[in-house]
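stage 2 :: seqdesign
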């Protein structure tokens, strides 16, 4: 057993709901949590004789996402019917894209620790419509809500390039950041805007031989946590089954499993991969889409710097930690606010601290983003400069930032009004230091003797000075004076 090693191999299929105002092929509004079957019309109800009309916004969002994911965007793409029977699919087919997807190839860079990235290759990205929802909460019968039927989805399929649960999660988080940056999806997990289906198996090496465990597809995961946990669970489960039974991958032993959120396990759904016959064929009701170079250029002009590139730049250019750079680039509004503040002449690390320790907390409390806090980047830059110059302490700067959002006043004014200006006047501070030293002979002796108590005594003296100035002494200046007097 000691010569056994293994690695997990994961590919992902992801459905992302696009943030259009209306559905993919009809004018019904997309809104969440409405009364069942209140956002439907003959088209999305699949009534005979009704005709679908393509939503241009959905096509453009998909093009924009495909470009950001480095896909090749097809110059000619079409719509296909994927036939299957299910109560939440009244037409008995889903409009999707089969052999000519809008996007092919491409990749997503995921951030790893230490400022490194890993490239996960994509197979395709295509547009399709969502089905409705079956509800099984009514007792002895089931209900169907078709409000979701016809919602535009971007389906993204990756190559099996991920080798840990953490990498799978990183990819999902990165995709969420990308579609939010682009504004093509709200990517709200609670509303089911992103759904994941990982394909998982293991490559095992034992005694110089290689084995592959059968592939398991886990269906319909709608949180990062469930996604990560299901991959970790399957890794262990497949290893255990291999060690017990020696079963390896053959044709036809791929299975489908569901995720049980309560006990965090996967449950077998279908043992054998059926040879699905979806009878794909081009939808005769819809015209193909030709993406002209001009149209593609126009969409390309809406691209922005991607979050992972920004994150790496913040580490390299500004010397921020991976963690801080990740926090600042999590949302586009935060990243842009940060950069505008830096451009206004503030030190990046100082701004980073102000935003991560105070600004984002306020935005979070108020349920808005940085740009909606009512403060200008230039004013925050002034505040950062005041903190750098020692005019106010770091703690006071956070307090002032909050007051700025509440009053709209300038930081200089607020520092005065709130009595937060630090005293850096060496002459005045020296007088206070002398007074404190005279009042605390024992502590002075402890420091000078350099014994065990020296450090603590010095801290005590510094604290006394700060206290005498009601917290307004600049600790750096006081510290210098103390060092000089006590050496
Ligand atoms: Zn409709
Ligand atoms: Mn799909």
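stage 2 :: out
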């Amino acid at each position: 057993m000691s010569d056994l090693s293994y690695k997990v191999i994961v590919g992902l299929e992801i459905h992302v709901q696009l943030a259009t105002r209306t559905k993919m092929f009809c004018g019904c509004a997309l809104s969440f949590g409405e009364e069942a079957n209140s956002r439907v019309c003959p088209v999305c109800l699949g009534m005979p004789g009704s005709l679908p009309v393509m939503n241009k916004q959905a096509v453009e969002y998909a093009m924009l996402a495909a470009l950001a994911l480095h896909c090749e965007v097809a110059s000619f793409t079409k719509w296909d019917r994927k036939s299957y029977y299910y109560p939440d699919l009244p037409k008995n087919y889903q409009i999707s894209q089969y052999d000519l997807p809008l996007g092919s190839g491409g990749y997503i860079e995921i951030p790893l620790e230490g400022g490194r990235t890993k490239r996960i290759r994509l197979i395709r990205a295509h547009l399709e419509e969502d089905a409705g929802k079956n509800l099984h909460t009514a007792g002895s019968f089931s209900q169907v809500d078709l409000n979701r039927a016809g919602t535009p989805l971007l389906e993204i399929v990756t190559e099996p390039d991920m080798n840990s649960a953490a990498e799978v999660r990183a990819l999902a988080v990165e995709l969420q950041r990308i579609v939010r940056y682009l504004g093509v999806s709200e990517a709200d997990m609670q509303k089911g805007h992103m759904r994941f289906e990982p394909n998982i198996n293991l490559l095992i090496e034992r005694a110089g031989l290689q084995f592959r465990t059968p592939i398991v597809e886990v269906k319909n995961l709608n949180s990062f946590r469930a996604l990560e946990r299901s991959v970790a669970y399957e890794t262990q489960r497949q290893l255990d089954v291999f060690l017990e039974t020696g079963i390896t991958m053959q044709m036809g032993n791929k299975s489908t499993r569901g995720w049980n959120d309560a006990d965090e396990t996967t449950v077998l759904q279908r043992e054998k991969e059926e040879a699905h016959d979806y009878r794909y064929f081009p939808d005769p009701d819809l015209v193909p889409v030709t993406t002209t170079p001009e149209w593609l250029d126009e969409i390309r002009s809406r691209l922005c710097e991607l979050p992972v590139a920004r994150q790496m730049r913040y580490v390299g250019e500004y010397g921020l930690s991976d963690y801080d750079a990740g926090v600042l680039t999590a949302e586009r509004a935060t990243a842009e606010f940060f950069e505008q503040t830096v451009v206004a002449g503030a030190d990046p690390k100082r701004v980073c601290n102000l935003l991560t320790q105070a600004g984002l907390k306020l935005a979070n409390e108020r349920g808005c983003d940085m740009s909606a806090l009512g403060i200008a980047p230039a004013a925050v830059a002034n505040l950062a400069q005041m903190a750098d110059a020692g005019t106010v302490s770091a703690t006071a700067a956070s307090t002032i930032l909050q007051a700025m959002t509440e009053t709209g006043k300038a930081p200089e004014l607020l520092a005065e009004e709130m009595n937060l200006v630090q005293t850096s006047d060496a002459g005045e501070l020296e007088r206070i230091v002398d007074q404190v030293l005279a009042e605390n002979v024992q502590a002075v002796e402890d420091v000078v003797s350099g014994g065990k108590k020296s450090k603590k005594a010095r801290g005590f003296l510094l604290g006394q000075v700060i206290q005498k100035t009601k917290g307004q002494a600049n600790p750096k200046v006081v510290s210098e004076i103390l060092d000089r007097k006590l050496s």
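stage 3 :: structure notes
- The two ends are 64 Å apart (CA to CA).
- The pocket of zinc ion (ligand 1) is lined by residues 23, 26, 28, 40-41, 43-44, 150 (CB under 6 Å).
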